[in-house]
Amino acid sequence: MNNSGKTTLAERFASGAPTIVPADPKYVTEIVAYVLKLGCEAGASDIHFVVDASEMKVLWRIDGVLQSVATYPRTLAPNIIARLKVLAELLTYRTDVPQEGRLRESLADVEMRLSTFPTLYGEKGVVRLFATSEQYRWPADLGLPDDLLTDLLGLLHETGGAILITGPAGSGKTTTAYACFRELQRDSGVGKSLVTLEDPIESVLPGVSQSPVNRTAGFDYDTGLRSLMRQDPDVILVGEIRDRETAETVFQACLTGHLVLSTFHAGSSAEAISRLGDMGIEPYLIRTGLRAIICQRLFRRLCDCAVWTDDESSKYGFALSRARIPVGCERCSGTGYRGRLLLAELLRPDAKDVGRAIIGRSDAAEIEAIARKSGFLSLGQRAVAAMVEGRTSPVEIRRVIGFRSDNCGIA
Q1: Was domain 9-131 assigned CATH 3.30.450.90?
Q2: For residue 193, how many other CB atoms are within 10 A of its CB?
Q3: pTM, two decimal places
């Protein structure tokens, strides 16, 4: 136990670790199986196998934060990575190039993909866990604010245009996109042709034609999307807009009678508009083609053990009299947090003043300021509201969205 008497993740991991000796031929096989199984049970989204000069560290990303759970001698590192490669059907003898593959054995309701990468001291491996549970099956299950959920459900009935779901990696964009597609399939049944183009396919969507990108065969997002448009689709999900060519094709599709959903890396809804402009997309296309931009983040939710304090928020620039802070208990493994909270903003480019700002090539700050005058609530403002309600902490808000004052709508 740690100094506060709470059992840590590392201690829980060690308590059930395989007891066979390292010299046993089955040792590495059992260790890898144990790490994957417990990582899944702990709710990890990623499992890192990192080798340095003296050891291999195993870390789990839980609720968006990496936590160390175990270390092994560096001499075992090549065998551990090789075992993972065998499960993913990768080339064990190629240690000098990155490789990716799906683990052929899934655990419970979780599919896993391995990515390896050569480093100074040997290969690093990261296993991404894709949960296929029913927890976030529909938009109503995501935890979105009522006003934003109502807007989103209404947008899904549009017959054309693009809906972009933005945010950094690991912010739940694909989960939101999948929930939207399940909603579309439930509402329309066989009445609409629903298709996706993904890299990779993270979960099976019944009633939806899903296609994986295959870059080695020349089948990238741009090529695939152009072909999909000749498949008579009603709604298209593009896994991610990564370049100008894909962005242009998305706008071509959404302006020719298709509803297109896609994910996009941007810090805010207004920044997404600026990024599209930087890619060379003309302002009139952005104004006409975009139906909405959703920008979202996942914040750690405070455990029930959290306590209210009168002076914590001011340390992080919030002019609030009270805030809850993490304490730590057995239930949260001493972290003070349990689970995550989805917060989001939704910007409508077709709003009158916002549209004019887009056509006028205003920058992101100007677009957001104009949108706020029309009632737009930014992600930062919603985060502050969650803090006031005691759902998350000041330090967590700053960890996720940074220290720029405009991020939270405060002077």
Answers
A1: yes
A2: 16
A3: 0.87
